[in-house]
Amino acid sequence: MTNTSRHFSPLARLLHWTMAGLILAMLYIGVAMVAAVSHAHATLIALHRPLGVALLVLALIRVAVRLRNVSPALPDDMPALQRVAAKASHLVLYGLFIAMPLIGWAMLSAGGYPVTLFGSWHLPAIVPQNVDLFALLRALHTWLAFALFATVLAHLAAALFHGLVRRDGVFSSMARGER
Amino acid sequence: MNSKFGASAACCIPCRLAAIGAAVLALGGTFAYAAGWLTPARLTTYRIIDQFQANNGPHPGYRRNHAKGLCVEGYFDSNGNAASISRAQVFAPGRTPLIGRFAIPGGNPSAPDASVPVRSFALLFRQHDGEQWRTGMNSTPVFTVHTPGQFYQQLVASRPDPQTGKPDPAKLKAFYAAHAETRPFQEWIKTHPASSGLADSAYYSINAFRFVDAGGREHAVRWSVEPDMPYAPVDPQEKSDPDFLSKQLGTQLERGNLRWHLIVTVANAGDPTSDATLQWPADRHRIDAGTVVLERTSAQSDGACRDVNFDPTVLPDGIRISDDPLLAARSAAYAVSFQRRTREEALHGAPATQQP
To answer: Which of the residues B1, B3, B4 would you substitute to probe the A interface, choosing the one with the greatest number of A C-beta atoms within 10 Å?
Structure first.
């Protein structure tokens, strides 16, 4: 792939759309499970942890793929402020993709919980048990989840703006391959 | 420009902006709905814990329920008898270290010990493979209510009257009259006066669970710990001391270890597992799985149990939750209590040691 291509590679697109679905699902699962008192609570928690680990792995692969390949250039006529917003929001997204699962894992470790995935499969603690640290990470996990959801919404709105209003090929660079 | 965008070119720009806005609103609205923000009448973990706080007043740093307690440490000596129905490491022959916590129900950390006829005993078994088994048991084999909704209504009915500082008897009476599922509990309490202390009481898992054996087969169970020390009724002299339970336990442990047998009761086909208000018939198969031994006690202000959320759904491979609706609610509500009290502790320091 060269920097003259106007489309992301099939691997980059597969990663993008897989993660898009999983991250939205994760945000809904997370916000629902902490409030739910029904069996849904247990079911959603059982999904949330393995899905978080899967998303951490996917995010690391995605960063590697992004660094190894040149992304399609933004259109020349995009205002400077929009270009900055585009670059900054992507940095925020990638940062949160990696931070959220790590904070969740560290939070459970600090709270003294075993980090159970399925059956007897569990992860080791990555920080020592400490409730002050738990309190901080637990609050961060919530607030960064809200920040991630807000950034995802902004990303979606901007993508649709490119696709429906500017119609400059940015949306289709991720939506489909070369024809 | 590709055909997809070409087809929509006829549509006005404001319409397209509106479409973008609608997409964002739809996703945001779904999020708000999932969080429960659009349905204030829905019972959530936050409403349950808020009600505890309303009933008991603010006690920063303490558990929202079972606020008054003490820490203990010891071990479980498994004899291997329960290994036939659960593959959990804790049931293989051998010793598993444990920490625990005795408490009385209610959100007031300085309530007199004699003010409630129920005591609780929570345990955390630390398996050598890194998995844990946490259980929160009560000194009654049945629970007052069947569902989280009924539990919440009971909390609302027992909210103290601001005038008297005590629950309104008429409201409580109306609640119990309207809730027939509370009768087995009330009947049991009437016929089983509280024991003289913490060490001569049995404690019960409250909810049913499922054991999973090495072959993957499930067995519906409840468990209890039954004391070696014979039951004695409360000493009327002693109970005037608001902290007689912890003082007595401290004295007993100075003399030697305290022991309970861990009894696993296996359900017959058809026994209800989804209703904590119903006892199983007395003739059910009982397995003596080993001995819970307590060696030490410490105040909850600095003991090992202070920072533990005794979430009864933290289970090792080999034990699973049942279909009892209270279990998920206990897990979810305990998490909110733990979140709030650890936050208070982080911001304002650990609560001072209770007197004494």
So the answer is: B4
Looking at the domain assignment, is residue A4 inside a domain? no
Ordered by start, the domain boundaries in chain B are 43-348
Tens digits of residue pLDDT in B56-67: 999 999 999 999
Cross-chain Cβ contact B317/A119 below 8 Å: yes
Please report the pLDDT score of residue A4 as a whole number.
65
Domain count, chain A: 1
Taking CB atoms and an 8 Å cutoff, what residues of chain A touch B326? Answer: none
Nearest to B307 by CA among A124, A136, A113: A113
Hey, is B271 helix, strand or coil? coil
CATH fourth-level superfamily of B43-348: Catalase core domain (2.40.180.10)
- CB neighbours of B134 closer than 8 A, spacing ≥ 6? B122, B123, B124, B125, B308, B309, B310, B311, B312, B314, B315
The answer to whether A124 contacts chain B (CB < 8 Å) is yes
* Contact at CB, B342 and A161, closer than 8 angstroms: no
Residue A1: pLDDT over 90: no
User: Closest-CA residue in chain A for B322?
Assistant: A39
Residue A74 included in any domain: yes
Q: Is the pLDDT of residue B351 over 90?
A: no
Which A residues in the span 134-153 are in contact with B, Cβ-Cβ below 8 Å? Answer: 134-136, 138-139, 149, 153
